Amino acid sequence: MAALPSFSLFLLLLTASQLQAFEFHEATVDSINQAFAAGHLTSRQLVEFYLDQIRRLNPLLRAVIEVSPDALREADRADAERSSGRLRSGGLHGIPVLLKENIGTRGPLNTTAGSFALLGSFVPQDAGVVGRLRRAGAVILGTASLSEWAHFRGDYIPNGWSARGGQGRVTDPCGSSSGSGIAAAANMAAVTLGTETDGSILCPSTLNSVVGIKPTVGLTSRAGVIPISPRQDSVGPICRTVSDAVQVLEVIAGYDARDSATVEAVKYIPKGGYKQFLKIDGLKGKRLGILKDYFNYPLGSVEAKAFEKHFQTMR
Questions:
Q1: What is the DSSP letter of 108?
Q2: CB atoms within 10 A of CB 15
Q3: FRET label pair with 236: which of 138, 143, 227, 292, CA 20 to 30 Å apart?
Q4: Which residues of 223-236 are buried (b: 16+ CB within 10 A; e: fewer)?
């Protein structure tokens, strides 16, 4: 009998009721939290799944630069806290997050913007958004690949390429948060973070059919993030659903003494936060315009079929 992959063997050890209760692929923050609450899932099991996805898929997709050696330990801590009744606020307790590799993390992960020039750069303090994720109990799974130096290296460097991560592989990796977009689409993390100066969250999200939010400058802290432009840089979520992206934004948005732009921007965070606007009937009564010239896909193509399916869902 051929040897089973480590996570396949792990799954066989789970009870049938657990397997029926939770679907790992395309899991959302809400479905994960429901499974946590019902006792059908642990953070360790979730991290094991994503680590296995990275082991299997990353040699082809090149979406991840490093995985954190502390990820399983952080997952165990989240499980222990949950078992003792200590549930952190924000909805990301025990949820694995991949960070674009220009976002600084203290401890075992490099922060190099994909460049060998900074290899061995271990920052002494978390970036502002990472500190917020940790306080919410999120598990830092690792770092996502990117266009080297957030594509501020030269006009002829391919999208999604870095010396450390190699070439990210999708139809077009597009903006510099390429690894975050690929990883979200390929179920290599529950949620991811990207950064944008000009299109680097929105473009890879579009090309990977995932959801990206580029916040107003200063709504999320840029402290501890390798910069390009103080007038344009922003950190935001890249996730598989609108709901997931909103829940991540709610955790990472807010004041940071290390980023003066947050002083003004946080005044516009709505009282009660962003999750209050997640309404299942939010499109009821709305009229949507479709840019047919932009979405002019060849008849019968995968893109045309996917677009029509999404259009009918909204209708």
A1: S
A2: 9
A3: 292
A4: bbbbebeeeebbbb
pLDDT value for 11: 46
Determine contact, residues 239/229, Cβ cutoff 8 Å: no
Six-digit token string for 181? 């977009």
Residue 214 annotated as catalytic:
no
Catalytic residue among 180, 200, 205, 221: 200
pLDDT exceeds cutoff 50 at 112: yes
Domains with residue ranges and CATH for the chain: 6-278 (3.90.1300.10), 282-315 (no CATH)
* pLDDT per position as a tens digit, 239-291: 999 999 999 999 999 999 999 999 999 999 999 999 999 998 988 898 988 87
| Cβ atoms of residues 125 and 33 within 8 Å | no
Has 229 been annotated as catalytic? no
CB atoms within 10 A of CB 27: 20
- 43, 176, 178, 180: the catalytic one is 176
Average pLDDT over residues 80-85: 97
How sure is the predictor about 313, in pLDDT bands with cuts at 50, 70 and 90?
confident
Residue 17 has pLDDT above 70, yes or no: no
SS3 of residue 46 by DSSP: helix
CA angle 185, 188, 190 (to 5 degrees): 85
Q: What is the pLDDT of residue 315?
A: 82
Out of 68, 100, 115, 234, pick the active-site residue. Answer: 100
